[in-house]
Amino acid sequence: NDLLFGDSSCVSCGACAETCPTAAISDRYQSKAIKADKKVRTICSYCGVGCNLEVAVKGKEVLSIRAPWDAEVNKGHTCLKGRYAFGFYKHPDRLRTPLVRKNGELVPVSWDEAYDYIAEKLNAIKVQYGADAISGISSARCTNEENYLMQKFIRAVVGTNNIDCCARVCHSPTAWGMQQSFGTGAATNSIADLDYTDCMLVIGANPTSAHPVTGAKIKQQAMKGKTLIVIDPVRTVLAELADHHLQLRPGTNVALLNMMQHFIVEAGLVDHDFIENRCENYEELVAQLRQLDIGKMEAITGVPAEKVKAAAIAYARANNAMSFHGLGVTEHSQGAKTVMLITNLAMMTGNIGRAGVGVNPLRGQNNVQGAADMGCQPHQGAGYFEMSAPENQAFYANAYGVLSPTSPGKKIPEMFDAMIEGSMKALWVMGEDIAQTDPNTHHVVAALSQLDLLVVQELFITETAKLAHVVLPGASFLEKSGTFTNGERRIQRVNAAVPPLSGTKTDGQIIVDIMNRMGYSQPAYLGEDGAPDTILEEISHVVPFFAGVTWQNLGDNGLQWPVQKGGIDTKILHTDTFKRGKGKFHHFDFSETTELLDNAAEFPFILTTSRDLVHYNAGTMTRRTHNSEIVERDVLLINPADAAKKNISSGDITRLFSDRGEVELLAEVSDKVKPGVLFTTFHFPEHMVNNITSSVCDGDTMCPEYKVVAADVERAA
Ligand code: SF4
Fold this sequence. Notes:
Elements: H1 15-19, H2 28-31, E1 38-43, E2 52-58, E3 61-66, H3 80-84, E4 99-102, E5 105-108, H4 111-129, E6 134-137, H5 144-158, E7 163-164, H6 172-181, E8 199-203, H7 207-210, H8 212-223, E9 227-231, H9 237-241, E10 244-246, H10 253-266, H11 272-278, E11 279-280, H12 282-290, H13 294-301, H14 305-317, E12 321-325, H15 327-330, H16 335-348, E13 358-361, H17 368-373, H18 390-400, H19 412-421, E14 426-430, H20 434-437, H21 441-448, E15 453-458, E16 470-473, E17 482-485, E18 490-494, H22 507-517, H23 533-542, E19 559-560, E20 583-584, H24 594-599, E21 605-609, E22 635-638, H25 640-645, E23 653-658, E24 662-669, E25 677-680, E26 709-715
Parallel strand pairs: 6-7, 6-14, 8-9, 8-12, 9-10, 11-20, 12-13, 14-15, 15-16, 21-25, 22-24
Antiparallel strand pairs: 1-2, 2-3, 4-5, 4-16, 17-18, 18-19, 21-26, 22-25, 23-24, 23-26
Helix pairs in contact: 5-22, 6-16, 10-13, 10-14, 10-16, 19-21
Bound molecules: iron/sulfur cluster (SF4).
Iron/sulfur cluster binds next to α3 and α8.
């Protein structure tokens, strides 16, 4: 009798309401027979699957959301976030006026007053400390056009390369690592290729929660009998279905992937033709793999060598094998190195360049691919041209009509360090709650508190907005037009279903306004038909792989980049050659994270974090919908053996603590985690799980190591 709906196995995706032949189950507005004025096709703004949505609108109100059956991405399917978690857009908490801090309080002001305040402050900081004392963080929830404008504002108007986005804290190791191996840092294939694959390798990803429509497709293929290999410290839904679940110790991906490569080479299951014709550095790799101490790797990973060998051979023997990876690969001190070892597996078995194969990162945020494509990173501008090269500086100077910044930009963790040290004076954050989502919260808050100017563009008063000097009310995806690029490089049209709430503006319009206010004239942001086609046209001239993109030719199902003139797109990358010429093999030895070397003696558990199906990241949007009635808090999973030793039962409140701080969480005793491993989510500011995560980063890209935290736990008093 105590069971709640949230305890059932229903994933609340709405497929029953979508397909019920008798209409016995239907969405609420349909059962009330309210007639919509119009239906608008747009794209979900939660995860990187990029599901198409059909939004039913009456007046200025969204009645319901369904999934179009002709959508190539999701074919009539969504998860409960895309279909039902839209009520946040008109929640009473929505910001409806700009706020400026006066006498310590954020008080309502006009747009003109807010813009004047910002422009005056930015100009004064630039004169006193130089442009490099100013930085910007763009938003993977915003459109390509808005991200392009944000980096253009920071580079062309402010005059610095200090621009970054949340890819820093999620898939920057994917982009960088795949660039080293292939020359292009994006998914090689499409999700539809699942129909053509024989083997799915899912590593460090829990797609049934974090990418549910893709997760459901993988599940379907596994249930049809295709081989499924899951490499994950947690027994996820897919792990329960898998033929091979390699439940490794968090942080040991490199050791495990080295074992897999070793067994494939030893078994003679490599594709010699592919390696000879299309790759380089193979002999050097093999020399290293032959020396691998398998017994030592077995002890490091905690996975028996025979299990690893069986999985490796299954992957190598498949006619077509696809890999999918997530933040359980990237958010580690060896994140980018792990990505390169995944590319090794694909290349040594010839699983590149045709349908049903490839390396396919599952991108977290709806437009994190687009934010990086548009140049929201310090080292590469729009289209991934290195900002350090004089010829690229000249290219952007020609495109933007002003000199390009020449000094290297700062990545997000470097921005925080510069704030603490005193050389970074201003930060503009568009649509990201860094005070909740970035690791080591105390460090982040201490850094933000040092600023002379913190501008936050947001829907709500987030933990970051609470610290701001100026808060500007932005608009949600339901209120704006533009494009998002999903995890399979598909550029899709986002169409406004309702106008921005009174008092708010689209994020793109805000950036255009401030550019104009600071003397850099911009054309009108939206055309007469309400589409940002002028800015999309500018992007098509600057970003080579957008060359053939127009608002019109994107159509309903979008185009996958690179898009040639005439709108010819690309479903599969690297079919004949790699972008860098030959694909490059890399070898890396396993190296223990400093987080454990420094702290494991005092804090003997390893905490690892991930997302829940019901909520999304900081929960800013989903917590303001009925989803919060299904899941209302973060929960700590602890293995039964550990729980017994610590005298903890399910339902107890625990104190979870690390070198950085402590949080209180409800315990759930579960054998989904092995002894010594703890697991939780990070959706609720009431818990602030990032109080205890560390500042350790990936050595190549500075992506934080959220997945390995030395911690301890006890029953709260
Ligand atoms: Fe939105 Fe992702 Fe769910 Fe699709 S799978 S509806 S894109 S959250």
